[in-house]
Amino acid sequence: MKRGLLALALFAIPAWGEKVAVLPVSGINVDSSYLAAAQDVLRSHLSRTGKHEAVPVSGTPGSSEATAAQAAEQGRAQGAAWVAVGHVTRLGVKARVTLAVYRTADGSLVYSDQMLAAGPDDLDT
User: Fold this and answer.
1) Tens digit of pLDDT for each residue in 49-85?
2) How many whole angstroms separate alpha carbon 121 and alpha carbon 16?
3) What single DSSP character describes residue 29?
4) CA atoms of 65 and 37, how far apart (whole Å)
């Protein structure tokens, strides 16, 4: 994801060493292999900071974005303090990519942002 979107997300999660669950990225009009790759890229970026233990949540990418309550529940099941939710909607030649981070204890939103992407290469700068 673009540096601004991911960089802010990395620092929105305050505690060092806490586990972050990364849900399968959902999407509309996007190939499932791209959605799986987007989850892996986000997990990889979070892990490489050394600040968090990022764990992927297994599952098949779908078209519906998880609600805060659903995301928090899935994150708690992984023993994570935080959960990251990504969603991609492609319309024509552009895609809107959203990222939200929730606290698993209460489902409260910690961070949210979005960006436009022309293609998969824009997800990993």
Assistant:
1) 888 899 999 998 889 999 999 999 999 999 999 999 9
2) 29
3) S
4) 16
